[in-house]
Structure formats: C-alpha cells, structure tokens
Specification:
The protein is of the alpha/beta class and 479 residues long. It folds into three domains: 2-145 and 269-333, FAD/NAD(P)-binding domain (3-Layer(bba) Sandwich), CATH 3.50.50; 149-266, FAD/NAD(P)-binding domain (3-Layer(bba) Sandwich), CATH 3.50.50; 346-461, FAD/NAD-linked reductase, C-terminal dimerisation domain (Enolase-like, domain 1, 2-Layer Sandwich). 31% of the residues lie in helices and 25% in strands. The chain contains 13 helices and 22 strands. The protein has helices spanning 15-25, 42-46, 48-65, 81-104, 161-164, 181-192, 212-223, 317-333, 362-368, 384-388, 417-429, 434-438, 448-461; strands at residues 2-11, 31-35, 111-113, 116-118, 123-126, 130-139, 143-145, 158-159, 173-177, 196-200, 227-229, 233-240, 243-250, 253-259, 261-264, 268-270, 304-306, 346-349, 354-359, 373-379, 395-401, 407-414. Strands 1, 2, 3, 4, 5, 6 and 17 form a seven-stranded mixed β-sheet that branches. Strand 4 (116-118) and strand 5 form a beta hairpin. Helix 1 (15-25) packs parallel to helix 8, helix 3 (48-65) runs antiparallel to helix 4 and helix 3 runs parallel beside helix 6. The protein is globular. The chain binds flavin-adenine dinucleotide and nicotinamide-adenine-dinucleotide. This is Dihydrolipoamide dehydrogenase. FAD binds at residues 52, 141-143, 309. GO terms for molecular function: dihydrolipoyl dehydrogenase (NADH) activity; flavin adenine dinucleotide binding; NAD(P)H dehydrogenase (quinone) activity.
C-alpha cells in the first residue's frame, strides 16, 4: 500500500471539496483532494444544471401550448423526446466539462482517486491502494438518493434523478414518489413534456412549503395540471410486463395505476455511512451523524471538518460553496478556528409558479418572536404586471417582528419568485426593517410592486408607519 503524509486531506471533489481545496491551497501545498467516483460534481452532472435544462424545455412547451391566451396560435405542439433529451445531455456535458478540466489541471500529487474511509482519526485508506496520514481532514462527500424499500420492487424500472438525465428519449409515463423539491421540479417538467405523471407523497406537503396558507394554495394550482396523490399509503409496487404497477390507499379507497417507470425522489441520505466514520474519533448523534458547529464546520474540538450536503445542514449549492470556504480556511489555519459568515437562508424551487423561502420560516419566526410577529401578504391574482404577462397565480407572505419592525422571513409561490427572494434575502441579511424596505424604489409596472403591497400590508399589521391609502394612485394601476 502507498503511503502519503499531508497537512490536509479533503474527501470528496464536489463543490464543497473543490472550494475547500482552493482555500487550503493558499496556506499549504501539502494537500490532497480525494474523489471516489467521478469528477464533475453533483450540481453539474445530475443536480442543479441538468434539472434546470429539462425544466427549460418544459417551460418552452408550456408557453407554446398556452400561447393562444394571447391570440398567438402556435398550432399543434409536438414534443420530440429524443431531441429534448439530446439538448439536456449536450448542454449538461458543457457544464460538466470545465469542472472536470479544472480538476485535471490540479497538480497530480494533489489528486487521489478512490473511495476513502477512516482507519483512525488521522488515517484514511483510499481505494485500498493508498494510506493517507492527514494532520487535518475535511469531509465533503455529499449525499445520494434515499430509496425506501417498497419502491425497490420496481426493480429495473426504478430510477433516481441521476438516471433521468441520461435518457435517450422521454418515457410514456412515470410515477414520481416524493413531492419535495426534486420530485416537484422533475414531475412537473416531465408532465409538461407530455409524460403521464402522478406525484405521490405521504404527508400532504408539496415543494417543501412550510406556510400552510401558501401550501394549500399551491396544491390547488399544481393540482390543475398534475395528478397529485399527496397523502397516499403505498400498498404494493410490482414490476409487471408493462412496467410498474402501483396500488395505493388514498382517502380510504384503494387505487391502482401502471407506469413505465418509478422515479424515487424521496429525500437524500448524507454520504457518512460509507466512511467508517466510527473510527474518526468524533462525536456522532443517534443517527450516526457527526456533531458539528455550523459556523466553523468543525466536528467537536477535533481537527476534522464537515462541509456541503454531507452535513445535511443546508443542502444547496451556494451553501456547499460557502461551507467549503469556511471549512477550507479553518483546516488551513487550524488550530486557529474562526466562525465564518453564514448567509440568510434562501431557497428556490424551479417549479411553475416558482416557490421561494427566505430567512426564517413562519414556525421559526413564531418560536423566535414568541408569537410577537405579524404577517403581510399579497395575492398575485390581481397584480398588474403578473396579469399583463398571464402569470397571475400566486401568494407571497412576509413576516415581521412587532416592536422592532424587523423583516424576519418570507415564503412565496408565484411569478419571478427567484428574483423577489433575492431582494428579500438581501434585506434580511442587512437586518432591514419593513419600513426601510418600503423606502426603496419600486418601478412600474413590475412584479416587485406585489412585494411592496405585501410589505405595506405587513407594516400596517405591525402598526408602523402611516396607514396606506386604498388604491394608491402614486403607484399606478394594477399594483
Ligand atoms: C436533482 C437535483 C437538483 C438540484 N438543484 C439544485 C438547485 O437548483 N439549486 C441548488 O442550490 N441546489 C440544487 N441541488 C443541490 C446541490 O446539487 C447540492 O447542494 C450540491 O451539489 C452539494 O455539493 P457537495 O459538494 O456537498 O456534494 P457533491 O457535489 O455531491 O460532492 C461530493 C463528492 O464526494 C464524493 N464521495 C462520496 N463519498 C466518498 C468517499 N467515501 N470517498 C471519496 N469520495 C467520496 C462523491 O463521489 C462526490 O463527487 C440539487 C440537487 C439535486 C440532486
Ligand atoms: N431548486 C433547488 O434548489 C433544489 C432542487 C432539487 C434539490 N435540491 C436540494 O436537494 C434536497 C433533496 O431534495 P428531495 O426532493 O430529494 O428531498 P425533499 O426532502 O425536498 O423531499 C422528499 C419528499 O419525499 C417525501 N417522501 C419520503 N418518503 C416517501 C415515500 N415513501 N413515498 C412518497 N413520498 C415520500 C417526503 O415527504 C418529501 O416530501 C432538497 O432539500 C434541496 O436542498 C434543491
């Protein structure tokens, strides 16, 4: 077995691992970045980018199919599944290639291919060919789909997100299990591309929405175009000659339907269980997850750090990058460990309408403010710009603290949520009050005017500032 002695070993060459590597590199040349499978990252290969490519095709198809609303007659819209998937794969490959190239450009002594596992708190065995002794270690091993046992009965027709993006053609039908972020994004996109889809859930939730009022509204809107079984008890999953036959119980009645494939989007499992983590000498919780500080990413008071999806703290791309930076800086400077900047929570679901959440959830605000908070809201059904562009479905709810008037968080289902969420996240991070946010300029006619309406409503409910005039003429029509 080869032997290596390094200052810092990083396990996992995904986004968190690559960013951590760049930071460590500033302090030492004696570093190794270990990858067990392939270069290219989850985001570029099987995550953010290919999913958004599929969604982009679905949005084009949907726009064409609904263009007659504007008097634009597109005729019969035909979707060529082979061409759709060809573009998804080709564009995906263009995102993956530069990531792989940047990895391959690293000095050879900084790269190691092979699955890593802990032998003790400082020693890793990699691919059974190299033993690495590291002064400090960063775990950045990401996550993988978690598939409940019963779904495995779909056998060769069971797929996860990774498989979808290698399809050569679109299938006739897919049962999507898991109405969370991945299931909703992919399920709606496939449906809009002409695939027969049913979305199965267990708890009644959809798209990770936490505010019940928005969740109920969103369920109504998605239910108009998607077959939803959000509170289903799966009785049987059988691989038959035609595909996958599913029997489920819903509202006290048994239902059955056959699909070509079963897509499991039932959550993700951190890649901790394949590391022999029990040998690392760090505290584990009752689920076997390392205890760590989210501000330093350090596990207890050890020399081991954990960054990205693997710690399951905020499993999003920009958070993986931030955590890679913090863990990298701290591993480099160890034992001088510093707290890093954690940004305001921000999440976007690329459904249509989009879903976004910013800052604290309604339940967290309630807990933090001990019920001393108010809610402002706006419906986009009557919002001027949204009506003009035919996207007037949605609801935004903003939360503020009584007394201080501070903006605490928001949840949104509606048009341009990805953009409005950014404005809100920036205000939250700057700790702005709702009144200060209302001092900012709002153009006319734009979707952001809907945000202003929600903020004015919140200010009124916080009993701050002047009582807003009904039908404000300064604001123009349809705001
Ligand atoms: C379908 C889908 C869509 C998504 N869309 C979005 C989106 O739109 N926006 C967003 O912000 N986020 C999105 N995400 C989440 C985002 O992709 C992740 O948060 C991010 O990629 C996590 O990066 P990471 O570095 O933690 O993990 P990864 O990029 O997964 O890297 C981990 C690496 O560790 C390696 N590894 C694992 N175990 C070992 C081992 N024992 N030894 C050596 N190497 C190992 C793996 O092979 C992998 O290369 C999406 C995810 C999915 C699945
Ligand atoms: N746009 C984005 O930013 C984006 C997109 C995709 C993924 N992601 C990230 O990836 C993470 C994982 O996404 P995900 O969708 O896999 O997880 P998730 O936790 O969002 O959703 C999983 C869903 O599966 C349901 N479920 C669990 N067991 C089930 C069963 N047996 N039958 C039916 N439903 C079942 C859960 O109730 C939940 O609704 C997200 O939390 C997010 O951080 C982000």
């Amino acid at each position: 077995m080869n032997k290596r002695e390094v200052d810092v070993a990083i396990i996992g060459a995904g986004t968190a691992g690559m960013v951590a590597y760049q930071r460590v590199r500033k302090a030492t040349d004696n570093v190794v970045l270990i990858e067990g499978e392939r270069y290219g990252t989850t985001c570029a290969r099987v995550g953010c980018m290919p999913s958004k490519l599929l969604i982009a095709a679905a949005e084009r198809a949907h726009d064409l199919k609904t263009a007659d609303e504007f008097g634009v007659l597109a005729g019969d819209v035909r979707i060529d599944g082979r061409l759709v998937m060809e573009r998804v794969r080709a564009e995906r490959d263009k995102f993956v290639a530069p990531v792989v190239r940047s990895m391959e450009k690293l000095p050879e002594e900084h790269r190691l291919m092979g699955h890593a596992r802990f032998v003790d708190s400082h020693r890793l065995v990699v691919g059974e060919h190299t033993e690495v002794h590291a002064d400090r270690i960063i775990i950045a091993t990401g996550s993988r789909p978690n598939v409940p046992g019963i779904l495995k009965e779909a056998k060769d027709r069971l797929i996860v997100n990774d498989d979808v993006f290698d399809w050569q053609d679109l299938p006739e039908s897919v049962a999507v299990f898991g109405p969370g972020v991945i299931g909703l994004e992919l399920g709606q996109a496939l449906s809009r591309l002409g695939v027969r889809v049913r979305l199965f859930g267990v708890s009644g939730g959809i798209g990770g929405l936490r505010d019940e009022k928005i969740r109920d509204y969103a369920k109504g809107v998605f239910g108009e175009e998607l077959a939803l079984s959000l509170k289903a008890e799966t009785r049987r999953v059988e691989r038959t000659g035609e595909g996958v036959h599913i029997t489920w119980l819903e509202n006290g009645e048994e239902h059955q339907e056959t699909f070509g494939y079963l897509l499991a989007a039932t959550g993700r499992r951190p890649n901790v269980d394949n590391l022999d983590i029990q040998n690392a000498g760090i505290e584990l919780d009752d689920r076997g997850m390392p205890e760590f500080d989210p501000f330093t990413l350090r596990c207890g008071d050890s020399h081991i750090f954990i960054a990205g999806d693997v710690n399951n703290h905020r499993p999003l791309l920009h958070e993986a990058a931030d955590e890679g930076r913090i863990a990298g800086d701290n591993a480099a400077a160890w034992p001088d460990v510093r707290t890093g900047l954690r940004k305001t929570p921000l999440a976007v679901v690329f459904s249509d309408p989009q879903i976004a959440s910013v800052g604290l959830t309604i339940h967290q605000v309630d807990e933090k403010c001990q019920s001393c908070f108010a809610i402002g809201e706006v419906s986009f059904e009557d919002q001027g710009r949204s009506k003009v562009i035919g996207r007037n479905r949605g609801l935004l709810r903003v939360y503020g603290e009584h007394g201080s008037g501070l903006f605490m968080g928001a949840e949104m289902f509606g048009p341009a949520a990805e953009h409005i969420a950014h404005l809100l996240a920036w205000c939250a991070q700057k700790r702005m009050t709702v009144s200060e946010m209302l001092e900012m300029p709002f153009y006319h006619p734009v979707i952001e005017e809907g945000l202003r309406t929600a903020l004015k409503n919140l200010n009124r409910n916080l009993r701050l500032g002047p009582e807003p005039a009904e039908g404000c003429m300064d604001c123009g029509p349809g705001v």
